[in-house]
Amino acid sequence: MKVAILAGGAGSRLAEETKVRPKPMVEIGGYPILWHIMRHYFHYGHKEFVIALGYKGDVIKEYMRTYCENHANMRVNFKTGEVEVQNSHDLDWSVELIETGQQTLTGGRIKRLAPHLGNDTFMLTWGDGVSNVDLDELVEFHRSHGKLATVTAVRPPARYGHMTFDGDRVLSFDEKSQAHEGWINGAFFVLEPGVLDYIDGDDVMWEHEPMRRLAADGQLMAYKHDSFWQCMDTLREKYLLENLWQSGNCPWKIWDSAK
Fold first, then answer.
1. Were both Cys, which of 54, 91, 175, 204 would link to 107 (CB 3.0–4.6 Å)?
2. Among the listed residues 142, 126, 155, 166, the one whose alpha carbon sits nearest the alpha carbon of residue 23
């Protein structure tokens, strides 16, 4: 099953980082968040990636082009110019990097990936969020209902402390409560090719008309994930993820655990 990743946005709310690189290349623990996302999928056996490029796509191309060289031993013959890469890593990935336009919206980027996705079920996510969602269970859920689309619904971490009151008196204060947050789009999708018929062109936001129409037609189902999920839209969220990685308590780093 191919995995489509949208990696073309400008990431304006991370401007301090994204002046020189696209948001999916912002690093957590010395690796781009895009790499973390791909490792997650690979842990569940998914190794064919189709990445939609846009803003500063050349940075992602260069990273992928040189990844094997930069993570393996190398022998260089200065006399002949011959370069031999030795003892390469075990990431058995196939990555297609597709230019989908600078201004294309999310739905348009998905539509432009259509020739590279084939006629089979595919997975889709954004290049700026990590989770420990069980992708095997997600796919099994999708296959069980027979509809065109499955979206992973998540409860986001509360951005601020949640308070309950008795008049003006604070009864409780919970700094990190998720219980009072509603379900939102967690952007881990499983989709049938028929969803592409719901996208009219480049100026379509996937999260707007296509998903609304799928829901209205009874073709959109939700897989509810109540464990870890975190997007990286701001510097605050980048620092949060970096701190989790450095602490060793990194919920999305499931590839170190036995499957």
1. 204
2. 126
Q: Where does the pLDDT of residue 79 fall: very low under 50, low under 70, confident under 90, or very high at 90 and above?
A: very high
Structural domain boundaries enclosing 152: 3-256
CB 202 within 8 A of CB 114: no
Pairing of strands 83-86, 73-76: antiparallel
Domains: count for the chain:
1
| CA of residue 149 relative to chain centroid, distance | 17
| Crossing angle for the helix pair 135-145 and 33-43, to the nearest 10 degrees | 70
The span from the CA of 61 to the CA of 57, in Å, is 6
The pLDDT tens digits for 18-45 are 888 999 999 999 999 999 999 999 999 9
Instruction: Quick: pLDDT tens for 207-217.
Output: 999 999 999 99
Give me the CATH number covering residue 177.
Answer: 3.90.550.10
Asked whether 2 and 123 are in contact (CB, 8 A), the reply is yes
